[in-house]
Structure formats: C-alpha cells, structure tokens
Amino acid sequence: MEGLTNQIKLKEIIFTICMTFASVLVFAQANNKHPNVIIINMDDMGYADIEPYGMTGIATPNFNKAAEQGMRFTHFNAVQAVCSPSRAGLLTGCYPNRLGLAHAFSPTTKIALNPSEETIASLLKNAGYKTAMLGKWHLGAQPPFLPLNYGFDSFYGIPYSHDYWPVNYDGKPVEEGNPKAKHPPLPIYEGDKIVATNTTLDDQAALTGVLTRKAVDFIENNKKQPFFLYLAHPMPHVPLAASKKFKGKSDIGLFGDVIMELDWSIGEIMNTLDKHNLSEHTILIITSDNGPWIRFGNHAGSTGGLREGKGTAWDGGTRVPFIVRWPGKIKAGSVNSRLMTNLDILPTVASFTHSKLPKNRIDGLNFADLLLGNSTAAVREVFYYYYDANNLKAVRYKNWKLVLPSNSQTYAGTLGKDGVPGSSQFLPVKMALYNLAHDPGEIYDVQTLYPEMVEKIMQYVEEARADLGDELTKRKGANVREAAQIN
C-alpha cells in the first residue's frame, strides 16, 4: 500500500513538473511571438555623442553595453532634422509631409498629427499590448491631441520642447518683448491633465530622473504581459540641465553631464529588464530625433564630422545613432552600414510583434530579416530629404546623395557658449552630387564625373515630387493627407 502511495505521489510530482514546464514553454512562445518593445528617443543627440559612435571625453558604459549586446547602424537617418516631423515619422512610418506636417510645433501651432493616423502604439494596443509614453510628445500641444488619443494607455511628460517657456537658455527669465515671454510655464501632463509646471532649470534638471523611474515602474508593473514603452527624453536639447548627482561630473562641462545622466537612464532600464528576466523577450531601440543644434556651441553635441546639424538637410542634421538590442535574436556586437531611417521602425516592429500594418499607405520598410541576420535582405535604397514647409532638398540612392538647389541654414558663423546661442545664416545651395562612401562630410561635388548617377537619381526626384509634392518647384503631391486642425 505504501508503494502504491509513493507511486501516486511520484506521478503527481511528474505531472506538476510537466505542467510547469508546459506553462514556461507557452509563456516563452508567447513572448517570442509578442516581444516587449521599448523605444528610447533622445532629443538633439548628435551622431557622435556617445562612445560607440566616437564620443571622446565622456564615458558611456551603458550605451556601450547596449551596442555590445545588439546591432549598431552607421547610416541611420531621422526623416527630418527637426523635432515634430521626425517624431511623426517614427511613430507612423510616414514621411511627415505626407501627413501635412512641418516645422517644430510651438504652444500656439494650429495643426497636430491627425488622430486618424495609426501609430506604433495603436497597432500594438490592438495586438493586446499595454502601451505607455513618457517624455516629450511634440505632435499636438493640447488635448485631444496628446498621446492618449494615439494608442497610448498612459502618458506622463511634456507636450513640446522644454525651451518653449518664458525663460532664456541660460535659465534667466526673458525680458518683456521677447517672443518667449508669451509662452506659459512648461506644463507637465499626466494623461490629458496638467499636474505640474516647470519654471526653473532646477525643475528641468529633474526630468531625466523622473522619467527613468517611471519607466522602471512601468516595466515592473507590466512584466507579465506584452508591453510597449516609448520613452522620449527631452535631453540633450537646450536648455541643458542635469541633476545634482551628475552635475559637474564630466570632463567636458554640462553637456557631458547630461549625456552621463542619459547613459545612467539606459543602464537603469537594461538592469530592470535583466532583473526580471525580460531582456531576451524585449526589443530595445535607442536613437535620436535629429542631430545637434550646433549654434549652441559647448551646449550642443557632435556630428562626428558630418556636415552641418539640426535644421538642415545635410547628414549632420539627419544621421543619428541607432542601436537595437534583442539578446538571442539580434547578433551581439554587430555593426550594419545599410541605409535605414526612423520610418522603418514601425513596419519592423509590426513584423516582430505579428501586428497588422496601418490601413493607409506608409513609407517605412521592414528590416526584420536584416536585423535577424540575413545580410542580403533587400531593404532601403532611397531616402528623400525634405525640410522647411515641403521642400525636397536632396535624395539619397544607396551611397550617393544628390543635393538640389535651395537655400539652407549654415552654422558657419559664431558659435554660442554656456547656453547663449551663436548665429546662423541662410545661404544658397547649388546642385551637387556626393559619394557618402568616400565623402561623408559632403565636401566634394562629383556630378561632372558621374552624370549617369545624377540622371538616375533625378528619376527618384520626380517620383518624390509627384507623390509628396515640392514647394521649391511649386509641385503638389498626389498622395498627401491632412493634418488635424486645432481650434
């Protein structure tokens, strides 16, 4: 009788073990089909502002770790070199001018991202994900044009850049007559309600820490279900501010302190994923919305020798860091020189998460096969550099870039220092052809040597003008949708 009892107990133990293993297997399969997604989007962080891309003078161990454990792209471009259009492109997979969007939105801008547009958040929410946004939105200044109306279950952050307030870049209140005097104190939103305001640089210094702690809380509170977190850090956009823990810690001044604090933030998020055994089930993307605002001198970052910066269609404005980590799926320590843009994040994430693509046309391409190791995967060959209202400034084809005649901002003037901006000017730009494989600084015009390449790229120029329009040539695009109007 005792032997029979022992046999029953043994069977019960074996059954329990089998059921536990099956549960773990089902959980693992579910997580492989629906991996968590975290996108961390910096503000104005230049191509060479972290060590994996050539920064000197600042230690960035956590950016380094992310690159060592994932894939680093060397020719990744934001769709435009300014905040609002770049963020629209990332979240929707569309050229922002296709959506009727241009320029950086101010508190009084009368357009917003149309809520009818599907975003990464709305796609993943429909696939059963818990979605959250933290940080800088910049696609609509007030309800109902804040993140809750675009697929996010929760939002905590600021509606636009943190320099839209009645304070100078050095932290001193602006004088009467200054355009910034018309701006309200910087609002902090939770959902659709203002819960606080920032009025001093000390307030701004708390942003990175507060957003990081809220990101950690979100991960821990949702670790048992698929989640999507979009963390849009307001830094290192001016005005720069670092918490007491990091202020004065770098060898290159306040800008370095800010980068060190952002590096700490990356570390906190990766450590949280490791702590809860979520790293292998989480796609972590780290990038920036555009290049550095060079006229701020030592309060701006570095392009690593790329031409110009934010506010231009030169590569210093659009080419930014891009690191994607997914342990066990994406080869650790790999480097990729293929052309990719932030338009391509949406369809790639949709593929990895088995989510449906938007019903309306998008411009992003699916890089999933390339990221998973298929080095011959056919992906992006062409990229349109639009800027201003809807000016087609250049077109890239593979390693070739044809710059079209226009006026362009240049920072070839006096640089600023310690929060006081320098000057910039606008100069005419002639048509030129650059081979970015040999000339990443866009210095040597080779159009007379390669007329056949000019002719080929001009075919793409005409395609872009017919599709999206071009203010420079007074062309209206056939496939442009309308932005939302704010009353």
- What coarse outline follows from CA principal-axis ratios? globular
The tally of beta strands, per DSSP, is 22
Radius of gyration, rounded? 24 Å
- Beta-strand portion reads 15-25%
* CATH class descriptor name of the largest domain: Alpha Beta
Helix content: 25-40%
| Strand arrangement, major sheet | 8-7-6-5-9-1-10-11-2-12
Q: What's the CATH H-level homologous superfamily of the largest domain?
A: Alkaline Phosphatase, subunit A
Q: How many domain regions? A: 2
CATH architecture tag of the largest domain? 3-Layer(aba) Sandwich
Mean pLDDT: 94
| Biggest sheet features | 10 strands, mixed
- Uncertain segments of ≥5 residues (pLDDT<50)? 15-30
What class would the helix/strand composition place it in? alpha/beta
How far the N terminus sits from the C terminus, by CA atoms, comes to 83 Å
CATH topology grouping of the largest domain: Alkaline Phosphatase, subunit A
Number of helices: 11
Q: Which terms would index this structure?
A:
487 residues; alpha/beta; Alkaline Phosphatase, subunit A; Arylsulfatase, C-terminal domain; 2 domains; ten-stranded mixed β-sheet; 22 strands; globular
Provide an overview of this structure.
- The chain starts with a helix and ends with a strand.
- It has two domains: 33-381, Alkaline Phosphatase, subunit A (3-Layer(aba) Sandwich), CATH 3.40.720; 384-485, Arylsulfatase, C-terminal domain (2-Layer Sandwich), CATH 3.30.1120.10.
- It has helices at residues 2-33, 61-68, 83-92, 120-126, 201-205, 207-221, 254-275, 315-318, 345-352, 368-371, 451-468; strands spanning 36-42, 71-73, 76-77, 111-112, 130-136, 154-158, 186-190, 193-198, 227-232, 282-288, 322-325, 334-336, 340-341, 382-387, 391-397, 400-403, 406-410, 425-429, 432-435, 469-470, 475-476, 484-485.
- With 487 residues, the protein is of the alpha/beta class.
- The longest helix has 32 residues, at 2-33.
- Residues 15-30 have low confidence and may be disordered.
- The strands form six sheets. The chain has a ten-stranded mixed sheet, with helices on both faces.
- It has eleven helices and 22 strands.
- One of its GO terms (molecular function) is metal ion binding.
